[in-house]
Structure formats: structure tokens, C-alpha cells
């Protein structure tokens, strides 16, 4: 009877390749990338977007807001609730907008009505140290500098199937908060020269994960909110639209709300 030990498995071939993994798990980045921040969510979203993996950005600013999942067409209310860190919940906001005649189901197709809602909610939550403005011109040096100084934005846009900005004339209108910005390379004062150099961090009610988009893409999407999706007339819900529609001066097109001091 043989007592020889079992033959060991063959050594791997010299040309065997071990695949490089950017993530330790599905959403957890490798320790060697994005070491310029200790914020796990920033590292995750920058790794996913292949942005600033091995060198720090020229500038960035980020405010961490807790994700809230929307139920029904309440994306604007959920975005506002996230901005308030849940101090006023989406259901309470829904009761307010129905009582005020802004909405029937949670839809918010008027940026002016959203601004009025922000004012009411700030008073309700006794927020005295913050200010807000209805603004135009998202992709501008002024707004970039405001974001770098800590401002937060409430912005409506067209959402693609992965919830990133797209151009569908307003047929997939959605709300998000802009809670940060990253400038990859030094723009030498000309922030608008390269759209690929300016990204923003965003949250919205259809994902628990932080999103990262080009500011220029969100601006273009915001400016293309021309009309209410006619197919929504078939879903059995009655929606409230502003005078002049989504694309009018009382609608969503080309408008957003900037909040400072939170």
C-alpha cells in the first residue's frame, strides 16, 4: 500500500491574470482609491463614476443628508424633507400642499409653489438661520461658487431610467437636491470652460445612494422641462398644473431654489 503524499495542485501559469477590483464589496471602494476623503459615500460614488480615484480634486464641498424613499408622485416633497433631515416628513408636507391647493397627489409642477412651501416649512420647523431664493441659470460661476460655499439646491429635471438627467421635454420630471460639488482640476478662474470638470452630488427619492452628475447635464435637463407628460392623463390621477404649464414662468423650466445657511 502506497504512503506517498498527494500530489499538490499545479502552480498558476505565469500569464495568469488576477482581475483588479475597485470595490471590496458591491458598493464599498478599495482602500487605495479616493483617499482624499473619509466620507464613505463620496468614495463610493467617485469610484463608481471613475472620478478622482488617485488624486484629490482641486475643490469640493459636500453636505450629508439622510436618504428618504418616495411613495407615489412625491419626489419634490421628499427632496424638501431630505433637505430638512426629516424634521418635517413627506406625509406632513403632503397634507400642507393639498391644503394649500398646490397638489392633489404630491406632485409639484411649479417652482414658485415650491418656494412658498419652503417658506411655510421653515416657519413650521422654526428654521431662522437659513435663507432661500428662487433662481435661474444653474450652470453659472455664481452658482458654482455658492455650492462651494455650502449652498444646497432644490432642482427639477428630467430623469432617465437610471434617474440621471436626460432630455425628454419634461415627460419624466423629477426633483432632487444638490448637496455638493466637486471641481476636478484647477479651472484658473474659468469654471465654465470645461463641463467635464464640474460634477455635483445629488440625492432624490428613488434611490438610497448618493448620485454624481455633471452640473451642465442637470442644467440642460432643467431647461428642457417644457410640458406635462400627456400619458399621465391616463393613469387615473388628477394633477394640478400651474397657469402656463410646466414650461411657463409659473412652472419648472429653467428655475430652481437655492438654500443657504442650513
TrEMBL record:
- Please report the organism this UniProt entry assigns to the protein: Pieris brassicae
The protein's name is Actin maturation protease
**Which Gene Ontology biological process is one annotated for this entry?**
proteolysis
Task: Kindly state which reaction or reactions the protein catalyses.
Answer: N-terminal N(alpha)-acetyl-L-cysteinyl-L-aspartyl-[protein] + H2O = N-terminal L-aspartyl-[protein] + N-acetyl-L-cysteine
Q: Which family does it belong to?
A: Belongs to the ACTMAP family.
Offer one Pfam family short name for this entry. Answer: ACTMAP-like_C
**MF terms (GO), sorted A to Z:** aminopeptidase activity
Q: Which UniProt keywords apply?
A: Aminopeptidase, Hydrolase, Protease
Entries under InterPro entries matching the protein: ACTMAP (IPR040043)
Q: Which domain of life is it from?
A: Eukaryota
Q: Where is the signal peptide?
A: none
